[in-house]
Design goal:
The strands form 3 sheets. The protein has a 4-stranded antiparallel sheet with strand order 4-5-6-7. The protein has 521 residues and is α+β, with helices and mostly antiparallel strands. It starts with a helix and ends in an 8-residue tail after the last helix. Helix content is 46%, strand content 14%. Helix 5 runs antiparallel to helix 6.
């Protein structure tokens, strides 16, 4: 990294470029140390030509040279870069047949393997999805098979995964053929047979085009809205709209997606008139794909988090809206809008200061990492934004009271959290303290209540390290208000440590306090 950064910043007058290119080729083809070859690769990132592609492709197969070789190839031939990247970084036996076909550049085999491999979210990070699309020359493949619905559906799913906010949706923005593939998928979407999976893909694409990273692509005037209108017409046809009444029995797809489609199906097509400077959209992604629930803040129609940060999703509505963090109070407040999917300590977070200035509200003093993912160039601080205070307050109030995105288990979690904030003694009497409360990541129809315990914690004088407990509350079909009241009543009457399960802390501490340590799969 240091060598690449140093070489990238070297001044290189036009008259010295040929000599620098010759030096780069000498270093990459005859160098005997990693630093020497890396310096050559960094120069070829700036000066390489098609002549260098075969050499770069071979060097990229060496573990310590993969990244600089891919960087150099990206500037010359995105397909070759993608093949090298996938050969090294694509994990999972399920991807190996596809990667082999891509390496051999067998068009028939590529199409067959592309539609055959199990495209589960665990296998398809945003980077893997983009590199597969690049290596397969997806626009050309779609052009050769215009009526292939399996290929069309897989192309749409690759776009959805590239824009997944839980990962790093810069991959969608970095995919040079994104506009072309969007056009192909949306304009031919009517060929797809109606199914819950296809409906989920098309609705996810619409959400990204309405308020997600798809907004940030370089669209011709009016084209993005035209594609959204096309998706709206299709998904409101009776043969597609009837899918939201699908029987919930069966696997995860049939259990989770019909309700999500009912709640979310109209959201990407509700365009505010006229559009304001600020819009707040709570977007719950496809639950079968474990997509997050995020508070998308749009500034002048552009989503702030992928535009300014792009290392993780926007925070949940429970964090930003339920606790009033976006309100403009009498004193300036620093608000974290998003945190890296790893941790803030690892890859940073996005902050903005919100303050009231007379009849205006100002967002300013943005804080974020100094570079964006995939780039070594420093990024400028975003500009300050000013909003009319009355319109700002009205939009935040609307977003805070809009619960149309929620579902029973999530609502139950919100009500339990509110009850514990109002009555902290429900936990403190058991030497416990409230932790994370929400719907379960793996099973969204289950409410999860976590809490910490250590002797003396309730009195504010804990003795030793705390244990973390997890209490799962499956949705029983009764109203969320009744389920939350029952949970709070149980906390008042029964020690939650007797029905919660230890999920964090240490084995030694659990044994010391007489609790069973969870068995790991």
């Amino acid at each position: 990294m240091l060598i690449q950064s140093a070489v990238a910043g070297l001044p290189l007058p036009a008259g010295q470029q040929d000599a620098a290119r010759s030096l780069a080729r000498q270093l990459t083809r005859t160098g005997t140390t990693v630093p020497a070859v890396t310096a050559g690769l960094a120069l070829l990132t700036r000066l390489g030509t098609s002549e260098d592609i075969p050499y770069l492709s071979v060097l990229g197969l060496l573990r310590r040279l993969t990244r600089p070789a891919v960087d150099a190839l990206d500037a010359l031939d995105s397909r070759s870069a993608a093949v090298v990247w996938l050969s090294f970084y694509a994990r999972g036996d399920e991807l190996r047949p596809l990667v082999r076909a891509l390496r051999r550049d067998e068009q028939r085999g590529i199409r067959a393997e592309l539609v055959a491999f199990p495209a589960e979210p665990r296998l398809l990070s945003t980077a893997v999805a983009r590199r597969i699309a690049e290596a397969a020359r997806l626009p050309d493949l779609l052009g050769r098979h215009p009526s292939d619905t399996a290929l069309l559906a897989r192309a749409g799913w690759l776009l959805v995964r590239m824009g997944c906010s839980r990962d790093a949706p810069t991959d969608l923005l970095a995919y040079r053929d994104a506009l072309t593939v969007y056009e192909s998928v949306v304009t031919r979407a009517g060929l797809l047979p109606p199914s819950l999976g296809h409906h989920a893909t098309l609705l996810s694409l619409a959400l990204d085009l309405s308020s997600g990273p798809g907004v940030l692509l370089d669209w011709p005037p009016g084209r993005r809205m035209a594609l959204l209108d096309s998706l709206e017409r299709l998904l409101t046809e009776p043969r597609w709209a009837s899918l939201q009444a699908t029987d919930k029995t069966g696997g995860t797809e049939h259990r989770l997606r019909p309700g999500w489609i009912r709640r979310t199906g109209r959201q990407p097509f509700r365009h505010p008139t006229p559009p304001g400077r600020l819009r707040v959209e709570v977007v719950a992604g496809d639950p079968a794909a474990r997509a997050p629930v995020e508070t998308r803040v749009l500034l002048d129609g552009r989503p702030a988090v992928p535009a300014f940060f792009d290392r993780g999703p926007a925070h949940s509505p429970e964090y930003l809206l339920d606790e009033g963090r976006l309100r403009a109070g009498p004193e300036p407040s620093e608000v974290q809008l998003a945190e890296a999917s790893c941790t803030e300590e690892c890859c940073g977070a996005l902050y903005v200061t919100i303050r009231r200035d007379g009849d205006q509200v100002v967002w300013e003093n943005w804080q974020r990492p100094s570079t964006m993912p995939g780039s070594r160039a420093p990024v400028p601080e975003p500009a300050a934004y000013r909003f009319g205070a009355a319109a700002y307050d009205a939009e935040i109030a609307r977003a805070e009271t809009d619960r149309s995105w929620s579902w029973p288990a999530r609502t139950t979690a919100r009500l339990i959290k509110a009850g514990l904030m109002e009555r902290p003694d429900l936990l403190s009497r058991w030497d416990a303290k409230r932790g994370w409360i929400s719907s379960d990541f793996d099973d969204p129809d289950t409410t999860v209540v976590t809490f910490l315990h250590a002797p003396g914690l309730g009195s504010g004088k804990p003795g030793g390290i705390s244990l973390q407990f997890r209490w799962a509350i499956p949705d029983d079909g009764t109203p969320p208000e009744a389920q939350a009241a029952a949970a709070l009543n149980r906390l008042a009457e029964e020690d939650p440590k007797t029905y919660g399960q230890v999920c964090g802390g240490s084995l030694e501490r659990a044994e010391e306090l007489g609790f069973s340590w969870p068995q790991r799969d």
